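User: quick one, sequence for these tokens?
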């Protein structure tokens, strides 16, 4: 059994980010007024339905944090507008507003859904981003609209790319806005045949960590968490059930979409370490875009089980990173992940190294590993506390990273849609 993985296999930048986020002992609070508002849409414009779903060292550390937070006081209260593509599942982190509750209060947040009125009408889009909301902007989605009509003082994010292929070439196929006849050129002399982005589009953000992205784009690409699904309740992370009062040792609620999940299911059925009445197991044959599908545990039951589980088994699907990982943490259940052949080093956000999740080399080790931790109730509770404290710091710093990137953007930017060349 192993219980950690290294965050520093991908160069000095990620080691420094890791040190910045987690070595310095800073207390963060989630009880901060976020000032987030959501633009109301008429019922006919509401994009949130399934038909619109897109499937698809210490002193040094203190200095770094001081530089990170040394924000111009004149910016306090300035507005950041999030423009979100209407993909219910993959953009849940932003549609739910859960990331914004970790705001430090430096900015006010406004959320606008990129419905057809804006995405199909360039005049309406220009008026929206240049006149109605001329300040900082974040475009959440694949970013094509913004990149084709760049407004300046903005950043953009790729969401939903579980395979980690966006901007790369794999098996003679180009992923993202590059390749023959596409928007941007490709560097075909590179093993990954990657997209060549203009300077105004950097840095950019994406979900689903992948070491190939770091290898190709370096510090130009930043990583944001996937977060929990929109259907998952917004839980008070400071008032969760202690580990000693939870009904289940573990929960295992998955669709059997990957061989590792099927293997783990069979192992659990045959396991004799943990009594069957101390485990909650529910599997479905496949994946469904609707969380209320009849094959799934209903969302309210799913959340209740999570809040009553000490551990949550999180076998990989298409990606190691998954909604279940974040939902487990938000419910106070300790995620258990398998790390075969160093998979987590290649596919997991390096910051998770200090999170308190339980990592095993192979699923066969999981029951004994959980039992070993259960044997000491004090150590078990400390692990849950560590996990929740880490999560608040992690989410706070990820949101702040977005704000810092925006602060580096020129306002206004020459030759942008809001300041066209004359």
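Assistant:
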């Amino acid at each position: 059994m192993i219980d950690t993985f290294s965050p520093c296999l991908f160069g000095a930048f990620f080691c420094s980010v890791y040190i910045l986020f987690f070595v310095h002992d800073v207390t963060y609070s989630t009880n901060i007024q976020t000032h987030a508002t959501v633009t109301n849409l008429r019922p006919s414009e509401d994009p949130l339905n399934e038909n619109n779903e897109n499937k698809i060292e210490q002193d040094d550390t203190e200095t770094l944090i001081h530089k990170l937070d040394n924000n111009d006081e004149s910016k306090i209260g300035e507005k950041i507008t999030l423009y979100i593509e209407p993909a219910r599942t993959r953009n849940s982190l932003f549609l739910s507003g859960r990331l914004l509750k970790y705001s430090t209060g430096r900015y006010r947040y406004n959320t606008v859904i990129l419905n057809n009125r804006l995405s199909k009408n360039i005049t309406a889009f220009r008026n929206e981003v240049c006149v109605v909301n001329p300040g900082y902007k974040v475009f959440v989605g694949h970013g094509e609209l913004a990149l084709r009509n760049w407004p300046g003082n903005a950043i953009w994010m790729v969401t939903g790319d579980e395979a980690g292929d966006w901007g790369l070439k794999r098996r003679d196929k180009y992923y993202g806005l590059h390749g023959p006849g596409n928007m941007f050129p490709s560097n075909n002399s590179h093993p990954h045949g990657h997209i060549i982005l203009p300077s105004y589009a950097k840095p950019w953000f994406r979900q689903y960590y992948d070491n190939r992205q770091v290898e190709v784009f370096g510090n130009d690409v930043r990583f944001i968490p996937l977060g929990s699904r929109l259907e998952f309740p917004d839980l008070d992370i400071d008032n969760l059930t202690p580990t000693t009062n939870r009904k289940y040792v573990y929960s295992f609620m998955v669709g059997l979409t990957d061989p590792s999940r099927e293997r783990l299911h069979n192992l659990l059925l045959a396991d004799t370490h943990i009594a069957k009445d101390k485990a909650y197991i529910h599997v479905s044959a496949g994946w469904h875009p609707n969380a209320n599908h009849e094959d799934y545990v209903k969302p309210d039951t799913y959340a209740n089980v999570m809040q009553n589980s000490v551990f949550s088994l999180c076998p990989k699907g298409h990606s190691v990173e998954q909604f279940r990982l974040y939902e487990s943490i938000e419910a106070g259940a300790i995620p258990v992940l398998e790390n075969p052949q160093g998979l987590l080093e290649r596919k997991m956000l390096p910051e998770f190294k200090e999170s308190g999740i339980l990592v095993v080399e192979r699923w066969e080790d999981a029951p004994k590993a959980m039992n070993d931790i259960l044997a000491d109730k004090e150590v078990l509770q400390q692990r849950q506390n560590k996990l929740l404290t880490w999560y608040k710091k992690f989410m706070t710093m990820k949101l702040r990273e977005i704000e810092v990137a925006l602060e580096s953007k020129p306002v206004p930017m020459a030759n942008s849609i809001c300041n066209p060349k004359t």
